[in-house]
Structures are given as structure tokens and as C-alpha cells.
Amino acid sequence: MGARLESSQLGTAKTSELPHSWLYAISSGAPYHHFADRAALLAAIAEAGFGYLEAAMISERDAAADDATSRLTALGRAYVNFAKAHRGHFRVMFRGDLIGELVQAKPRAFQLLWEAMEDCQRSGVAPAGDLQPLVLTAWSAVHGLATLWIDGALPYKNLDPEHLAPKVSHLLSHMFAALARNPPSRPRSSSRRRAVRR
Q1: How far apart are CA 100 and CA 103, in angstroms?
Q2: Average pLDDT over all residues of the chain
């Protein structure tokens, strides 16, 4: 049997946002011998969350129009909607201290985004070249919006997240398409800039 887990140990995840099955183990002190300790329990919550997120993203992607831009937009929309609908999971999934515990989970949501961006490049609606900065830009935008939304930060700025979430995903996809049509010039290296100054 693992040590009793106090609700205060959940960090930023509110107990009211967690699944009832997890709350039972947390609040009642009931035996939950499936989990060795607090880290194992939180990792299980996070792994379940990544599974739900993957399913939501696949469902939304498959229901989208059959073009790369629409599929990428759908993934971003699904990501933000998942965060709103599963706040407890979302808060636990990206805890920095759980990264090691999640190595075995191999979250597939990131891979879905990567594959969608590759599809955009092949279709000419994302700039050619290194995928990493493109994927990181897309992920940062939707994750940042999702976090601001569930933290309640947006309403204080007179922003309506319900209205803006699909627009942000749509804007991201079309931003990548615009960059594909007009690739930005590469920044000069610092050594080259020094040579020019001389």
C-alpha cells in the first residue's frame, strides 16, 4: 500500500477538477496499492490524460476537411477544448516533476502534431526546413491559450476564450501557409555580422 496522498500535494491541480476515482484514493486514505507513491499516482493521472487527449485530437482531425491545413487546425482546436473539459488532467499532465515518470507513457499527442506539420510541409502549406520550430510554435500557442483559459486569466482582459479558441487555431494554420508562400529570410549568424561590421 502506498503512503496516503494529501490533496495539498497535487500542486496546481484542484481536487474538484480531478476524476472521482482519483479523488477517492486521495481524500479517503483508502488502499490504493496499485500506486507505490504520490509520483506514481500523479503519473497515472497524467498518462490517462494523454490517452484522452490523443483520442480527442484524432477524433477532431478525422472529422475535419480532407486537407492539411484543416487537419492541423482541428488538432489545435481539440487540444484547447480538451484542456477546458479535463482541467484536472491537463494541470497534472505537464508538471515538470513528472517528466521522468512519463517516459514510459510516450505521449502521442505531440507525435500527432508533428505528423500534421509534416503533412503541411508536403502539401506546401508550411515552410520547408526544420520541423522543430514549427511544431514548437504551434504547441506553444495552443498550450498557452489553454493555460490562460483554465486559469481564468483571459476574462480579466475582456477576452472571450470560447470565441477565440477556434480562431487562434485557424490563424496558426494560415500563418504557416503564408510563411510557405513567402519564406522569411534566414537570420545572419553572429560571426557573419561581426565580419560585416569590420
Answers
A1: 6
A2: 77
